[in-house]
Model the fold of this input.
Amino acid sequence: PPSSPPPAAFSTPPTPPPRPLLLAVPAPLSAFLPTSHCSLPRAALSPLSAAFSASRHLPTSLAAPRQLLRCFSAPDDYDARLSVNAYHRCADLCLDALEEAFEPLEEEAAIEGFDCELSDGVLTLRLGNLGTYVINKQAPNKQLWLSSPIAGPKRYYYDTESGQWKNTRDNHELLPLLSAEIEELTGTPVEFNY
Done:
């Protein structure tokens, strides 16, 4: 006689097969890597977002990524344009100019807990309960790195054509950003002699 299935109380539900992770790539990755600043076009994100949303195995924070790829915006010949000695000279001049511009803030803005210190290529600007800025040299990359209580972490390369430190993601300049943020926090305008 054919065997009958076990009673429903003792049966286990079948295990569904694992769901594959689907990633739709609209074009070869190399198509999104020009030599200057780039980011994935918004149109390229929609297939990826749909694939992410369809998978319950991924965190919801990945369901709608804002940007998946960013490229370094320094020129291809950046290392050739800026020698190590020139980098140190430019970075030290910038850090000295920043320290000189920040020191008057102590009296002008009357900030409790204010401190400005430059030591070994690291400039620390403490604005009490308003936050702390750290700007430091990154010699292996020939960059200046900024940690800002408003803008967060940012990296800057020295643009030999303009003589300015520019952001590696969107090419904004370091000094105007710092000037605007410091004025926003303290109410005191800051001008740099650089």
Summary: Helices lie at 42-54, 78-81, 84-102, 105-108, 174-186. The beta strands are 114-119, 122-127, 132-138, 143-148, 152-159, 164-167. The radius of gyration is 26 Å. The first helix runs from residue 42 to 54.
